Amino acid sequence: MKPGMTRVGTFMTKIQTQGVHHITFVGADRQTSIDFWQGVLGMPFVFEQPNLDDPETNHLYFDPGDGRLITVFTREDSKPVARPNPMGIGNLHHLAFIVARATYTQAKKRLEERGFPNSGEVDRGFMYSLYFRDPLGQLLELACYKFDPPVGYTHADVLREAHNIRLAKGDYNIADEHLADAIEKLSRKPDPDPTKPA
């Protein structure tokens, strides 16, 4: 049995998540966080209050665009250090934010104008990516899907189907053809039942 799992009768119980509630970063001073999260990435500054576990630390809340939260712990005696975050086991590698295609095509230029070197466009098969580091060295990604899911489906639904098509074809990674086939498959409506009156 895996750690954290309990057995009830013959069934394994689990905790069912419903999405990401918030992500919290350890920041430097307050203004560095506001300048980056709101000023560079356009995330509205929602509110702030003391960190309820440590009154010496401030807690800033930003809206990344979907009504959820990115939060940052700040201290005025903490100054930004831009060294890359550690790559050890258990550490966060990067965090990706979804952006519209129109925003994505302008991101490289706009980041560079603000002093943020970046990867430029990277084709990931089912999406385009652009990577850069925040003022504290955290690797971030701006991600832009290559497709819109059919009505009633999510991006994950399309990717799951595209993955199955890719595996059946023995291809290395999801590509445009797999996405197109997955969208077609999910978009098909069942044929009317010829035995039922019109």
Compact overview of the structure:
The protein is 26% helix and 27% strand. It has 198 residues and is of the alpha+beta class.
List keywords for this structure.
198 residues; alpha+beta; 2,3-Dihydroxybiphenyl 1,2-Dioxygenase, domain 1; 3 domains; 4-stranded mixed β-sheet; 4 helices; globular
Structure notes:
The longest helix has 15 residues, at 155-169. The chain is an alpha+beta fold and 198 residues long. It has 4 helices and 10 strands; from the N terminus they run E-E-E-H-E-E-E-E-H-E-E-E-H-H. The strands form 3 sheets. The chain has a 4-stranded mixed sheet. It has a 4-stranded mixed sheet with strand order 7-10-9-8. A two-stranded antiparallel sheet has the order 1-2. Helix 3 (155-169) crosses helix 4.
Fold blueprint:
Layout: E1 6-8, E2 11-13, E3 22-26, H1 30-40, E4 45-51, E5 54-62, E6 69-74, E7 94-98, H2 101-113, E8 122-123, E9 127-133, E10 139-145, H3 155-169, H4 176-187
Parallel strand pairs: 3-6, 7-10
Antiparallel strand pairs: 1-2, 4-5, 5-6, 8-9, 9-10
Helix pairs in contact: 3-4
Largest sheet: 4 strands, mixed
The total number of structural domains is 3
> How many helices in DSSP terms?
4
Q: Class of the largest domain, according to the CATH hierarchy?
A: Alpha Beta
Q: SSE order in H/E notation?
A: EEEHEEEEHEEEHH
Task: Tell me the strand order in the biggest sheet.
Answer: 3-6-5-4
